[in-house]
Amino acid sequence: MTLMTELIIIVAKVVFLALLFCMPVAVLLTWADRRQGAMIQDRVGPNRAAIFMPGKLAAFLVVVPALAVAGLALGLAWLNKIEGDTPIVLGVLSNQLAIASVWITLFVIAGRIRVRGVSNSFDVFVAALGDPRAVLGFGVLANVAFLAMFVMLKGTPIVATLSDVSVSSGPMLFALAVVGGAAYAAFNLGKLPRVGLRLAGTLHAAADGLKSIFKEDLVPPSADQFVHALAPLIAFFPVLVVLAVVPFGDALCVNSSSVVADFIHQAPRVCSGTLIKLQILDVDAGLLFYFAMGGTGIIGAALAGWASNNKYSLLGGLRAASQMVSYEVTMGLTLIGAIMIYGTLRIDQMIHWQTTHAWGIFVQPLAFVLFFTAAVAESKRVPFDLPEGESEIVAGYFTEYSGMKFAMFFFAEYVTIVTSAALMVGLFLGGWHLPFIDRQGIRIAVAGVVYWQLALPQVLVVLLGIGAFIGKTLLLCWLQLLVRWTVPRFRYDQLMKLGWRILLPISIGNILVTGLVLRLLSLGGEGVASVLSTAGDLTQVLIALLGLWAGTALAIELLKPAKHKKLLATSAARFAEQMGGIRSRRMGA
Amino acid sequence: MMTPLPLGPRKVVGVAVTRPERTGTVQAYVPEIAKGLALTAQHFLQNTKQWALGQRPDPILESINDGINVISYPEQRRPYPERFRGMHRLTQREDGSPRCVACLCCSTACPAQCIYIEAGEYPEGDSRRGYERYPVQFVIDELRCVFCGFCVEACPCDAIRMDTGIHAAPYDSREQFLFDREQLLSFVGRDGSSRTANPRHEPGDPTHPGVDREHHS
User: Fold this and answer.
1) Could you report the per-residue pLDDT of A140-151, keeping only the tens digit for each?
2) Model-level pTM?
3) For residue range B137-172, what is the model confidence (pLDDT) as tens digits?
4) How many CB pairs under 8 A join A and B?
5) Residues of B in contact with A40 (CB under 8 A)
6) CB-based contact B37 A575, cutoff 8 Å
7) B69 close contact with A: CB closer than 8 A
8) Residues of A numbered 214-273 whose beta carbons fall under 8 angstroms of chain B's beta carbons: which are they?
């Protein structure tokens, strides 16, 4: 690889991980922390920011992307026209996609009609189809029925015909469903005089950012001007940089000159060509780099407290420094056990160990809990937000900060959530790994017996891995927010006690026990090794079952109808009843 | 047999409140935190689902249910109750002129002294001259008004009402809160009418009790 291509790849990785993933997620978290935190208190939270536009423009904005997607689908189908017999897999795929796209569109429209009420003859027709859940049920049934037909009648001419028909008509049905759905939305939007674009309230985060930039930047006259300006940068920069050592996907293997052709083939077990690692900084010190850089963040908070020349700031800065130093110790020591097991400091190799054995959370469950606690404390958030304890020291070390400088401290807090979640995913939740998916594709095997396998192209496997990494990171971010919404703040002495007298001894105990168990297992020989490998496979089964259960439970919960009791006790309620209820009033229209 | 009520202070029987026991799980902290997290997560999922699918309870009709019972003002508004005292309006006669006869009862009754009326005589020859007057100016300072409704009670002619069902909008200067005669006449009641259901008995109508005690017209 030339220097130029390497540079382009590195820039692409930085852009993806920092600009497209970490920072947008952190921005959304600043909003979600308030919005969804409001949800647990039966409130609606910040959602007022909107871009108002005429209904006609909104309709146009809906139709154009839909036409583009439909055009793309049809164009791809046209360009890749197949001569002769169509492969059955392609037939099944386009068949399933076409049916699913039609019923999903109908399902969404039926749901909207249910919420907004019937307004034209098409609505009447869709409403007559019955409950949206019925549409969903019949849709899934149709998908399953066709899939069963393909499987049962394998090898017969019927399947070949069906496959041909599916491949030729599938893209058209898909395009029709997309354009039809968009046209329906556009028709309804076009009638409105004004539509507010709110993106479910997420636009509020953007508005907050803009506001911060334009706000006045106040610096106390007696503050150290230079250090006061430097502190937010020092607080913000390291927490973002640590993301460099966290791999966000499996390595791509490129053998020949044609990169595209290589990607759509399966990756070999041993790569003989060039390996593109999906990790910005590939160093042996991996985890050490993370802690070295992450530790620098302490200086930012301490400097901010010192430079402000305010007693509350100073108290906050001191609290932040002592708290972060204390928990940094636990963070490091909890990982010693994991490092002993993985035998490396490189996070990508740790993930490789987890793909072939078991996820870190199964081999070091205690370490996960300890590390999670320490990571929450490290990000100075509730219940460990004493450095900014409003009831005691105003706002702690950023009392004297305003505008974008304040926003940088605030933003750094949320970036820390994302980066620590990403690290925990790499250390304990198998990084990009999904159960039963390896470089060659899907392979369901327990204790050496292969039950089912399916080869997948390399690019698909890697994309699945990136998706898994992002999904797991978001899950851990959400868990950190959930902790904030639930647990009340500690007292300062309790915080120190928890750090030094509880977490630290437990983490040292964890190291001793891990070492002992590792030594005993190494004495066990072949028998123990095979038992361990089977246990590792069983953890994969457990994860897969847990995932299936969670998905099914969520789907069932989402489909449950909401039952509400009505109470008309006041004249205001009677007026509201005549209006057809308050809930159905559109926001921003 | 009836037992007489005891005289003197009644004996208070306390109820023993059971204190939560400091069991192992409570002291260990982690299980209790897990319980708390589960409870918050349940609330979160329930409310987020209802919000995302448009299933949340109607904040007025179904407000006795659990869930997000908030009104997103100003897009969503709680309708005011029937007897809500909102902005004033001057009711009209059949010909569109104010029913007000400029008797100054309302401005006299007003505790906030926010009503200013300049009374005018009808021209010579008008049948109403000497019988009643009309407001040349009728100004209400809605910023000073305390919305007590005394003016409505005081009015003998049903000429001033507070049944518009709207509240004063937030303006940016004090002058904008001074509502003059024409503005007050332009407001309509909840029923959309600028008149009232009470009939007015003009002099000369058979229902009119007479302009004076001697001569029934």
Assistant:
1) 899 899 888 888
2) 0.81
3) 999 999 999 999 999 999 998 999 998 888 877 888
4) 124
5) 40, 43-44, 47
6) no
7) yes
8) none
Q: Which positions in chain B touch A586 (Cβ < 8 Å)?
A: 75
Closest C-alpha to A334, from A363, A286, A366, A298? A366
Which two structure tokens, joined as six digits, stand for A219?
């610096």
Cβ count near B17 (within 10 Å) = 5
Q: What are phi and psi of A159, to 5 degrees?
A: -65, -40
pLDDT tens digit sequence for A334-391: 989 999 999 888 888 899 888 888 898 998 899 999 999 988 888 888 788 888 878 8
Domains contained in chain B, CATH given: 25-74 (no CATH), 89-186 (3.30.70.3270)
Quick check: B35 contacting A, CB < 8 Å?
Answer: no
Separation CA A329–CA B52 (nearest Å): 42
Residue B57 near chain A (CB below 8 Å): yes
The answer to whether the beta carbons of residues A98 and A180 sit under 8 Å apart is no
Chain A residues touching residue B42 (CB < 8 angstroms): none
Hey, what are A382's tokens? 């509730």
A447 in B contact zone (CB under 8 Å): no
Answer whether B47 sits within 8 Å of A588, measured CB to CB: no
| Cβ of residue B61 closer than 8 Å to a chain A Cβ | yes
Question: Quick one: A108 exposed, middle or buried, by C-beta within 10 A (0-12, 13-18, 19+)?
Answer: middle
Total residues belonging to chain B: 217
The rounded percent of chain A whose pLDDT value lies above 70 is 96
> Which chain B residues have a beta carbon less than 8 Å from that of A567?
61-64
Greatest Cα-to-Cα distance within chain A, rounded to the nearest angstrom: 87
ipTM score: 0.80
Q: Which of A147-161, A500-514, B139-153 has the lowest mean pLDDT?
A: A147-161
Q: CB of A585 within 8 Å of any CB in chain B? A: yes
Asked if A558 is an interface residue toward chain B (Cβ–Cβ < 8 A), one would say yes
Task: Dig out the tokens for A54 from the structure.
Answer: 């005429």
Q: Measured between alpha carbons, how far is residue B138 from residues A8, B118, B192 in Å? A: 76, 7, 22
Q: Enumerate the domain spans of chain A.
A: 51-196, 215-505+530-551
